[in-house]
Amino acid sequence: MTCSKYRKQLVPWLDGELKPDRARELKVWFESCEEKRHCTECRKLISEYTALNSYLHKTPYPEFPAFLHHRIMDKVKNNQIIYSKKAIRRRWQAIPATIAILLSLYCGSLIGIKTFSTQTTTTATNTAAASELYSFGENSLMSNYYDNGGTE
Question: 25-60: per-residue pLDDT in tens?
């Protein structure tokens, strides 16, 4: 392995983002880097990164502006009022929609009853006509087969 492959993982290693076994491997590599390979760049990069990291942790975070905080909170309160009005409106819109659905189901069932219940109840003198009315909707070939004892 070369140092360049290990240097790519230098920042995650120093930030503690690597798995423990991989971190130990990198630590051993960087400790032996200067002695065995006479590489001073790795030690220099480590010291620069730790100095930069400690400097960044020491700098204070800028305070959030109070006027911006109040402006955001006012908008949130105004939006809550608008959203609550919309929620009430949606709730009231559900009532006519439900009534319309129930009314259409009721009217549809009335139309269906009127349309499909107009059967004529005539007495057929012809047995063939009677068997046709009787077998409507059934498998008439199979019913004739069983009615005749399986001879057809």
Answer: 888 887 887 777 777 788 888 888 889 888 888 888
CA–CA distance, 24 with 18 (Å, rounded to integer):
9
Q: Is the dihedral of CA 79, 84, 89, 94 positive or negative?
A: positive
Instruction: Specify the pTM.
Output: 0.37
With contact defined as beta carbons under 8 Å apart, do 43 and 34 qualify?
yes
Residue 129 to residue 124: CA distance in whole angstroms: 6
How far is 37 from 50, CA to CA, in rounded Å? 22
Nearest-angstrom CA–CA distance, 58 and 52:
10
Alpha carbons 121 and 138: distance in angstroms, whole number:
19
> According to DSSP H, which parts of the chain are helical?
3-7, 10-14, 20-37, 41-58, 66-116, 127-134, 140-147
Contact call for residues 124 and 133 (beta carbons, < 8 A): yes
| DSSP 8-state assignment for residue 138 | S
Q: Note the pLDDT tens digit of each residue in 88-102.
A: 877 888 888 999 999
Residue 117 has what DSSP assignment? Answer: T
Q: Taking the CB of residue 149, how many other CB atoms lie within 10 A of it?
A: 7
